[in-house]
């Protein structure tokens, strides 16, 4: 599974609607509104790199109110949940 973080600049008065529309697109796992240089951050998970080419410019980029996107492809996850799960493999809690 390919994970990408998509930074999205949107028209200020369309942020809530754009965020919900993006969240409803297949392949988009989460969308966050945020402060800073971008208005929205979307976490995208797709089976192949080619799917990103369809999803981001053809779907997310065409949502009304979206002005620009900047995509970052993730190489590895270093979350606490992933680390804890790795140590649980093969361990019986009885």
Automatic annotation (TrEMBL):
Residues 6-76 form the Transcription regulator AsnC/Lrp ligand binding domain. Pfam families: AsnC_trans_reg. InterPro entries: Dimeric_a/b-barrel, Tscrpt_reg_AsnC/Lrp_C. This is AsnC family protein. It comes from Amycolatopsis arida. The lineage of its organism: Bacteria, Bacillati, Actinomycetota, Actinomycetes, Pseudonocardiales.
């Amino acid at each position: 599974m390919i994970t990408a973080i998509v930074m999205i600049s949107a028209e200020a008065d369309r942020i809530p609607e754009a965020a919900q529309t993006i969240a409803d697109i297949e392949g988009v796992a989460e969308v966050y509104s945020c402060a800073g240089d971008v208005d929205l951050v979307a976490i995208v998970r797709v089976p192949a790199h080619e799917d990103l080419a369809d999803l981001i410019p053809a779907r997310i980029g065409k949502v009304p109110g979206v002005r620009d996107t900047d995509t970052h492809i993730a190489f590895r996850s270093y979350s606490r949940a992933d680390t804890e799960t790795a140590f649980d493999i093969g361990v019986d809690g009885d």
